[in-house]
Amino acid sequence: DMGLEPQKILKQHELASGIVEMTVRAPMVARSARAGQFVRVLASEDGELIPLTLADWDVEAGTIDLVIQGMGTSTRLMNKMQVGDAFAGIAGPLGRPSDVHKHGEDETVVFTAGGVGLPAIYPISRAHLEIGNHVTMIVGFRSADHLFWTGEDERMGRLKAEFGEKVELIYTSNDGTFGIQGFVTTPLEEMLKAGNVANGRPIAEVVSVGPPMMMRAVSDLTKPYGVPTVVSLNSIMVDATGMCGACMVPVLTDGKTERKHACIDGPEFDAHIVEWDKFMPRFGMFRAQEGRSLERHKL
Ligand code: FES
Q1: CATH T-level fold of 108-284
Q2: Could you tell me the superkingdom of the organism this chain comes from (predicted)?
């Protein structure tokens, strides 16, 4: 089912240290892609399946854009691939698309993205803007050294140029070297305290993509204010086949815990019914596995 046609890399460049953006030929995926979806990529015949969020796509050119953070063995190998190289296979689009619907004329949708959460947030925010919603984007980087897409002629700048006052961009960095010092939750908390208002408009919903810790912090923050919040749990998926069980998410429905798969039932979930306490302790284990795998391959 991987459709093992070689998928050529047409463009490739490093966005920031360890983060590579690629344009890959995948006409079938581009044709049916919707905001919030991902693909499952097999870099080489003997490689591992890696889920990657669709950062962008171009139906006419028959291409998709992927942003890959070199975290484990496979993603580091992918990031070494060059223009002209080909992936062994790309399957998709997969996952349920984002629920993008029109909000009130006076309302806004707040997005919070941490690091490589930005490529996942970008198509979703664009889809909201295209149907006329107002959007506030809070994008957090570790420091000025880790920035990408923020320049005037890069994606965020072009979004601003295209949609003008419909989109508000707010940047944060942990060390204060770019934008507001703090985390994405820093400006978000101010907005909630000011009466659930962003850019002078009531917040209709919050959409968050980033490391699990960040999504949990956003969820904990918005819950007491009753602001509907969606998290996209791409970052916990391992093979996106529905088989490995690594992406199990406990959610509370009708007082009972239901176990969902991020790669099948998601990647988006209502943040306020995710049982974060049962769910968070697992992440230490993933890091340990990645560490072992890296050692074995001496990368
Ligand atoms: Fe393996 Fe979902 S990522 S089952």
Answers
A1: Rossmann fold (3.40.50)
A2: Bacteria
Distance CA 104, CA 98 (A): 18
ipTM computed for the complex: 0.98
Please choose, from the candidates 109, 56, 52, 48, the residue with its C-alpha nearest in 3D space to the C-alpha of residue 77.
48
Q: Where in the chain is the domain with CATH 3.40.50.80?
A: 108-284
pLDDT (tens digit per residue) in 231-243: 999 888 888 888 8
Rounded to two decimals, what is the model's pTM? 0.90
Nearest 5°: phi and psi at 145?
Answer: -70, -15
Ligand 1 centroid from CA 167, angstroms: 34
All CATH 2.40.30.10 domain ranges of the chain, comma separated, are 7-94
Alpha carbons 84 and 68: distance in angstroms, whole number: 17
Contact (Cβ atoms closer than 8 angstroms) between residue 65 and residue 22:
yes
Hey, what CATH topology would domain 7-94 get?
Answer: Elongation Factor Tu (Ef-tu); domain 3 (2.40.30)
CB-defined site of ligand 1, < 6 Å: 237-247, 261-263
Q: How far is the CA of 122 from the centre of ligand 1 (A)?
A: 24
The two tokens of residue 189 are: 């908390």
Q: What is the CA radius of gyration of the chain?
A: 19
Q: In a mutational test of the pocket of ligand 1, which residue from 48, 96, 237 has the highest number of ligand atoms less than 8 Å from its CB?
A: 237
Q: 230, 231, 266: which is closest to 247 by C-alpha?
A: 266
Taking CA atoms only, the protein residue closest to ligand 1 atom 4 is 242
Helix axis angle for 212-222 and 185-193, nearest 10°, is 10
Residue 12 has pLDDT above 90, yes or no: yes
